Amino acid sequence: MLECKNIAVFYGRHRAVEDVSMQIAPGEIVVMLGSNGAGKSTFLRAIAGQKAKASGTVVMDGADISHRPSHEIVEAGIALVPEDRGIFADMTVQENLILGAHPRRARALEADNMARVLGLFPRLAERPKQLVRTMSGGERQMVALGRAMMSAPSILMLDEPSLGLSPLLTSELFRSLVKIKDTGVGIFLVEQNAKQSLAIADRGYLLDNGRIVGADSAAALSRDEKVRHAYLGAG
Ligand code: ATP
C-alpha cells in the first residue's frame, strides 16, 4: 500500500503541487487526470525521490520513505516509467531489461522476472537483440514498462504512457497494464488521455493547478459532467 499525505512541491517560489494526498493498494489501477502543467509529473517525481518535497509524507507498506533517495525508493518496491521512457536507445531490448533487474530486491528473481516480462510482451521476446532506437513508439513503451517490471515493483507508476501512441497501440498497452494489475501490482497512471485510462482504472483523481479537485471511482468519473467536459471532449 502506498500512501501519500499532504505533498507540496515548489520550483523556486512556484508551487507546482499543493497539499496532494492519494493512496493506492496492491492490485488496483488508479489514474490521475490533469491538463498540461497541472503538476502530474512533478507529483510522480516527488514520490520517486527525484524531486524534493517541501512538505508531506510518503509511506510504503507502513514504512516512511518520504526522505529516502530514489534508489532506496526503488528498493521499497516503487518503480517509475518517466514521460521520456528512460530507456537506453543504443542498447538492445535484452540489455535494457537486464538493467532493470539491478535493484537488490530483483537480482535473485531476474530469470523469473524476465520470463514474466517476455510472456507479457511477446514482441520483445521475438527481438532480444534489436537496438531500442530502431523500435516503434509502442515497442519502446513496452521496453520501458518491461524494464520497470524487472525491478519487481509492488507499485508501478507511469507518466503519460499513451503519449505519442495511436488509440490502438494505447489500448494494447493498457491491456498489458490490466494483466500486470491482475498479478497484484498496484498501478498509478498519470494521463491526459481520460477516455482510455478511465476504462481500465478502478479509481481516479483530478489534479488542477497542483491541487486535487476531485476523486471518485473510474465509473463515476466517466459519467461526471465536469470530467466529460474537461477531459473527454464532451460538450
Ligand atoms: P504535462 O502534462 O504537460 O507533462 P504536468 O501535469 O506533468 O504537465 P508538471 O510537469 O508537473 O505538469 O509541471 C507543473 C508545473 O511546474 C508547471 O507550471 C511547470 O511549468 C512547472 N515546472 C515543471 N518543471 C519545472 C522546472 N524544472 N522548473 C520550473 N518550473 C517547473
Shape: globular
Per CATH, which architecture? 3-Layer(aba) Sandwich
Helix content: 25-40%
Strand content: 25-35%
CATH topology: Rossmann fold
> How many domains comprise the coordinates?
1
How would you sum up this structure, described in words?
With 235 residues, the chain is an alpha/beta fold. It has one domain (2-231): 3-Layer(aba) Sandwich (Rossmann fold). 39% of the residues lie in helices and 26% in strands. It contains eleven helices and ten strands. β1 (2-11) and β2 (14-24) form a beta hairpin. The radius of gyration is 17 Å and the shape is globular. The mean pLDDT is 93. Adenosine-5'-triphosphate binds next to β2 and α1.
Question: Keywords for this structure?
Answer:
six-stranded mixed sheet; 39% helix; four-stranded antiparallel sheet; 235 residues; globular; Rossmann fold; single chain; binds adenosine-5'-triphosphate; alpha/beta
Write the layout of secondary structure elements.
Elements: E1 2-11, E2 14-24, E3 29-33, H1 40-47, E4 55-60, E5 63-64, H2 70-75, E6 78-81, H3 93-100, H4 104-107, H5 110-120, H6 122-126, H7 137-149, E7 155-159, H8 167-182, E8 186-191, H9 194-200, E9 203-208, E10 211-217, H10 218-223, H11 225-231
Parallel strand pairs: 3-8, 3-9, 6-7, 7-8
Antiparallel strand pairs: 1-2, 1-4, 4-5, 9-10
Helix pairs in contact: 3-7
Bound molecules: adenosine-5'-triphosphate (ATP).
